[in-house]
Amino acid sequence: METSTGLDTPTLSELESEAVRARPAFGEHSHILCDNLVRIYKTEGVEVVALQGLDLLVDKGELIAVVGASGSGKSTLLNVLSGLDVPTAGVARVAGTDLLAMTAKDRLHYRRQVVGFIWQQTARNLLPYLTARENVRLPMRLAGRRGRASRAAAARRADELLELLEIGYCAGRRPGELSGGEQQRVAIAVALANEPQVVLADEPTGELDSENSEHVFAALRRANRELGVTAVIVTHDPTVSEQVDRTVGIRDGRTSSETLRREDSDGAIIAEEYAVLDRVGRLQLPRDFTSALAMERRVRLELERDHIGVWPDRPRPEDPQ
Amino acid sequence: MNPVLLLRVHRGTATVLALLAFSAVLLVAGLPRMFERSYDTSLRGTLDQVGANITDITVAMRPPGGVAGLSGEDQLRAAYTHFVAAAPPALAAVLDRRPGGHGHSAIKTYGTPVAGRIGSPPRAYQYVNVAWLEGADRRVRYVAGAAPGAPSVMRVPGRPDLGELPLFEVAVAAGPSRQMDLKIGTTLLLGNSRPVIARVTALFQPLEPGGPYWNHNLDALNVTVRRPPGGDVDENHITALTSTASIPLLSRQDRELSYEWVVPVRTTAIDARNAAATTGGVIEYRRELTTDAYRVLDYVSALGVSPYEVTTALPEMLQRFLARLATAQALLFLVLGGVLVVAAGVLGLATRLLAERLRPALALARARGASTGRIAGTGAAAVALAVLPPVLAGYGLTFLIPGPVTPVVHIGTLLLALAPIGYAAVLLPLTHRRPLADRREDMVARRVSPRRVVLEVLVVALALAGAYLLRTRGLATDAAARGGDPFLMLVPAALTVAAALITLRCYPYPLRLVAWLTARARPAVPFVGLALAARARSVTALPMLILLPALAVSVFGAVAGGTLDAAQRAAAWQATGAGARVDSAAELAPATVDRVRRVPGVRTVVPADRGTAQVGLSGRTATVVAIDLDAYRRLVAGTPLRVPQAPADPGGRAVPALVSPDLYALGSFEIGWHVRMQLAVKGVVQGGLPGVAFAERSLIVVPYDASRRAGSRDHTTMLLIGGDGVDQARLTEATGGRRDILVTTFEGSLAKVNDTPLTGTIKNSFALATVALAGYALLTVILALVIGATDRTRALSYLRTLGLSERQAAGLTVLEITPLVLLTACAGLALGLVLPAALGRGIDLSAYAGGQAVPAYQLNVTTPVLLAAGLVAVTMAGAFLHAAIGRRRSLGSILRVGE
């Protein structure tokens, strides 16, 4: 029985519904979500912390690059996202799949249907004794598409993918007969074979010259635009940021900066670098900034009306002593 | 993922795998057949050496007097049918039931004296038994006279008191008829108390005198000359055959008769596998007949005493063979087990090589969404495609090898086929289950889990406990007679695994020490090589598990073979006593001795005199040997024979003597030999004088001139000869070829010991196994190197860009494998040397050493060390070969691969 007291106090049911009402979670609508991701390799008393609380949000259909120095943890991140590696702690979710709570079966489904990826080594992406078309069809066959109709559909899709990536002429050739750029584009087709929602690429142009790199990026961009696939490219090449919408920098296992690329009113491309502020308010200052001002151990912060001032920890000249 | 395509791509590796599977199946399915065949051949040889009367079963019945006899042949035949039917299944399987076989019934009188002859002068000491043998008329040819007819009656002229006596017409073999003067028409009065008359009406020749039928009735073909105890005249016994019509009269109650039924055994049906069952069958048959209610004649024997006596030496022969077989089987099981383990290991290694080759493709497939089941299925299918056809081909090919098929042939083949497939099916999903979880190539080695340490400690403890139990318990169980002991079969394997585990665990320590030393030295190659060896994790375990048993079995074979060889030589020396020996019953004339001295090859002749002497004035006798012990010791120097020191001469009339321990208490005593002589006991001779006098008790050794000193002259009845290649035939010729002079040579004795059945099989299979295992060892090292070839070539290529020469690169490869091979060689050598000691009691070699006890395995380390050194050399050569082949590839091509 419900009785109104006339007072503005919430009823129990109101409190309950308030409690269970979903508030927008961190990155709830992101296609790829990494929250405070930690990955630690332990061997014989030695611990290597490859990811130390990494945050990353990628929207659906975005094309981003993850850059960082060697050992910064970017390959670990990609391994985690591709389902080849399991993080030690944190949250990792791709297209609604929780990567920490996957069973072996989920993992298999994830690899078959959700992600596709491309390794740096051109040779590692393709089986040398299969033609480009057969290589593209391999993931479809592994995913268990049987029957004559689906086989024909698979063959058609393989050809379509190769055409889309402008390498239709390579369909009947084996990897040994292809250039490095062509091989990587076939690898992109392989990665796209099962219509994944996310494509991950680990240094896809690492072994290529600039012209071939250009082709590969064009292919990735086309896949991104025309098929609506979210693409994450890991690279240590800083010029990549000119090719993608957003570049995420990783330093010491954490996201440290983001560079956004946008066109200004004249049509010129402007790239602006931002520092990343994580959920608990941590901020990584770029190393050249801190070293230019000889900032060490601690800094002094001052809240201004529209910004926060960061000062080296030494007496300011205007401070009266 | 098409396995056929995968195989086509990696056809080189697949071919290696296929060839290995083929050779392994040939060995594992072929060797047991050869073994079984040689067991059978040796059993056949043993059984064929003796006559049918030894191996057949004779059921005999000697009823007491006063039992009513038979009415005719039918009763005997019915009894025969019963005795054949009464055989238990194990025995029935090997009985010869063919019609027209040599199974038969017989009635024989025994010990029938010839009381006199009618119409001819008497001959003393003659015994003529009268017998009826079933089927004898078909097996003889009458050379004179007419076949014996029906019995009649006759009165003995001049002996009216005897009245009418039954007269048997008998036939006598032609030879004995001459010997015993039993011409046609000779009429004999047989027996003293209830005499009968026998008249010789025919002389016969046996149709198949050497055949099994007559083998049972040799008493009818040959005169048996027997000297009764205490008598000085020989008795002549012969059995004469009478007609079927005489049976009722012959088997009358007043004769001493033996009824016999020969139940023939088909010796060809007995083989190594049913020998034990046959033995059991005969024993059961004996027991059954003891309690058999069937009665041929109507009488009751004494309580608990069987009326039937079953005579055959078959179980004894088979048991002796089985004892010998058990040793052979145990030894060959070790060999076969070693070969099987090593072959399976090498197959596993080759499978791993193929898995390593398939890894990139499978890893890619796995990353692109292949399930572990699919990975396992594809890999296993590829391995099965590579392995199954050669296994089937090898299995089929072994059917060309003559020899019986035992279950081990099928089981071994199946194991060899399934092992690599199963290995691939397990290894591949494990490798690809979680590609990156907690594993990074740049991290140091993982710490061993306590669980694994406990498991390893358990295996080692079990192996040691097993070896201890085997040593204390031995194989003195029933199981030994019925085949190998299952416990014995497991202990060597467990010991090998334990040794491998210990070696694997201890492997890093010596390596660390050497690495520490090389790190301080100037040259870089040893340091880098050892560092590579220390990091070569994947290469270590399996090759060690292969090399260790390979070497252990080879070394064990060498030790066992060497021991057997030494024991056989010792047995031959003990049988001969010198390079050659001449024994004579009578004294050897000086001229004969001179002739012997002149036989080519004879260097030294030591004369000796052996005889039996009366001890004191009592009835006790002793064997006396008069020999110059010092000369004899010089003669046998360098042989296993040990000759005691000659006794010191006390001077005076007393002859110094060595005596066996039982005579030592007598102190000084007199013996009566050629002359009476006083002996002064100067020492004890233990264990006889092998080769000269085998008596260990009541033995007296005196100087050669003892008789002369006692007032007679030197006598010589024995010559001990030293020399090279003394020909037995020439020696026999020199001694005049007399039958009472026995000539033995060392070579002859050795050949006799060597002829022991199965000896050749054991020695040959050890040699064969050693060769096979050496081949596998070489393959192991090469495969291990090939598996790690990609990593190594890359590492070497980097080093070469830093200035490493090609020669140094080859040296690095050799160095990388050296610690493993050296340590495994040491461990294998140690294990091989320990195995005989651990199994010492379990495997008794005495059956192969002329019955002489083989006290302990003789540890002659030369051959084992040579084997181990050979293994090391061969594997090093393999490593060098591998490095030399790898040298051809250009630096650029290697460094680009996979980068």
From TrEMBL, chain B:
GO CC annotations, alphabetized: plasma membrane
Gene Ontology molecular function terms on file: transmembrane transporter activity
Keyword Mitochondrion: no
Protein name per its UniProtKB record: ABC3 transporter permease C-terminal domain-containing protein
Subcellular location: Cell membrane
InterPro entries: ABC3_permease_C, Macrolide_Exporter_MacB
One Pfam match: FtsX
Topology with respect to the bilayer: Multi-pass membrane protein
Keywords: Cell membrane, Membrane, Transmembrane, Transmembrane helix
TM spans (from-to): 330-354, 375-397, 409-432, 453-470, 490-507, 545-564, 766-788, 809-835, 865-886
Highest rank taxon of the organism: Bacteria
Residue span, ABC3 transporter permease C-terminal domain: 772-879
PANTHER family to which the protein is assigned, alphabetical: ABC TRANSPORTER PERMEASE YTRF (PTHR30572:SF4), MEMBRANE COMPONENT OF TRANSPORTER-RELATED (PTHR30572)
Record family assignment: Belongs to the ABC-4 integral membrane protein family.
Primary localization class, coarse: membrane
Keyword Cell membrane part of the UniProt annotation: yes
